[in-house]
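Contributing new complexes? Match this layout with magnesium ion.
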Amino acid sequence: MAIQRTFSIIKPDATARNLTGAVNAKIEEAGLRIIAQKRIQMSKEQAGGFYAVHKERPFYNDLVDFMVSGPVVVQVLEGENAIAKYREVMGATNPADADAGTIRAEFAQSIDANTVHGSDAPETAAEEIPFFFSDDEIVG
Ligand code: RTP
Ligand code: MG
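Output block (do not edit by hand):
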């Protein structure tokens, strides 16, 4: 399996509880390397555009409101099979369904306040990374 890059967000519920380092420890323990990272306050336009794929879903407005409710940390992760590996480390979307030891099992509060985002496929990673990072901000 080739070296891949994936896009990650540490969501507002996690920054509010000072869990950035704890989430990063899980990422690094899994063998993924954080090759870009910045803490930002997303605008409504940014969050709406980022989650445009969910525009027709009933949870879209709540999701956008949640993502702008506080700072987030956006990241690029690199490693062997990084996209699937990070989804494994994150755990299921609903923390009630997340396997023990995953980020969402340990830290998430609800299906909305679920601590992290990770790209779900190579095509989405390829769109999501340049949405927040320029090439010179990523140091592999
Ligand atoms: P993410 O995109 O944040 O990595 O999460 P995911 O792939 O596991 O879940 P996705 O289906 O892409 O949904 C994006 C985010 O929307 C919220 N959500 N709420 N109330 C609901 O039924 C519901 N479903 C999804 C979650 O916060 C999810 O992370
Ligand atoms: Mg998703």
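Reviewers usually confirm one structural detail per submission. For this one: The mean pLDDT is 98.
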